[in-house]
Amino acid sequence: ACAVAALVGLSFSGAIGLTFLMLGCALEYYGVYWPLFVLIFYFICPIPHFIAKRVSDDSDAASSACRELAYFFTTGIVVSAFGLPIILARVEAIKWGACGLVLAGNAVIFLTILGFFLVFGRGDDFSWEQW
């Protein structure tokens, strides 16, 4: 029951984040779809974690170089996702209001991804593999 509630909450927050992103693109005042390129960052964000988890299966170690490198790459991906709309607004490819909506969507989506790993990434009695 707790896992189902967490899954429903995460899907709701993901929908909120994607709504912010789509509002930044599709509102008639903004009308430019360049900010949709941040979707690429959403998809590649968990990849370093999955690779590091696959390579270093020793869960008793407090820290490993592979895990730290995965954190570094993930941080670079997240910072790039926040930087892209700012750069697009700076070169006037999108308006600053659209940039604000995309940044709000980024914050919600990346917090949702973090929440997913906190809830389903522990590997105890339930995990994301069961879904």
TrEMBL record:
It comes from Tricholaema leucomelas. Coiled coil: none annotated. This is Leptin receptor gene-related protein. The lineage of its organism: Eukaryota, Metazoa, Chordata, Craniata, Vertebrata. Belongs to the OB-RGRP/VPS55 family. It is found in: Endosome membrane; Golgi apparatus membrane. It is a multi-pass membrane protein. The chain crosses the membrane at residues 6-25, 32-51, 71-89, 101-121. Keywords: Endosome, Golgi apparatus, Membrane, Transmembrane, Transmembrane helix. GO terms for biological process: late endosome to vacuole transport via multivesicular body sorting pathway; negative regulation of growth hormone receptor signaling pathway. InterPro entries: Vps55/LEPROT. It holds the Pfam family Vps55. Its main location: membrane. One of its GO terms (cellular component) is endosome membrane.
